Amino acid sequence: MGSNPQSGVRVGRLRPVDLAREHGLSTQAIRNYEADGILPAADRTPHGYRTYTALHAGALRAFLALVPGHGRQTATSIMRAVHDRAAGALDEAFRLIDESHAQLLDDRRTLRAVESALRDLKSLGAGAEQAGGPGPGGTFIGPLADQLGIRPATLRKWEHAGLVRPGRDRQTGYRVYDEADVRDARLAHQLRRGGYLLEQIAPLIARVRTAGGLEPLEATLSDWHGRLSARGRAMLKGAAELEAYLRISASGLPDDS
Q: Rounded to the nearest 5°, which phi and psi values hold at 197?
């Protein structure tokens, strides 16, 4: 048997354990990957044992390289489409890859929008003393709406969507927005001006709350940048491995090569 210059794994007749050892997997995982359509179907020996080839080794490398950038579910769907002999199946694999890239681009735009909104909030002074409130640190819906240049009905809509969570004045029952609520309203306002939908804004507001405010959130932005960059690089690696596998598959590589 020869050896694969990339992996060091023998590329003739391979056993499940040969594929498993290269990637620190169990032989059961290899069998599961085959059953899930991630690997092409294996041949069997006269005694019923599975035998794999360089084609299977390439498919496994492609799948494992796709997972970090696209996620396990999408990577599985991509490999299944690659192995589907139906017309247009390969185009479906490319469509799935395109969707992941589009999602990454959208995530980058979201990050830029959050950074822009944070800069705007700083210039506006999100913690500034509020006028027209019921007491220190609180304001009613009318004054807050005036400050933002929106209608009170808009704030009520944002509340329904979970973007703001005002309390209630014990005596009057009116909505009371504390400093955190005002911060969330200002952030929502900036993101809405940037064209973001309420359902896109809600998880960002939740991130601010989890971080404990704007200042702690700023510390997470560099990590957010890093994760997006890592995803982008993982997609490049996944694309390279998938292209290598497609070349092997298209070459009609014999089982005993």
A: -80, 160
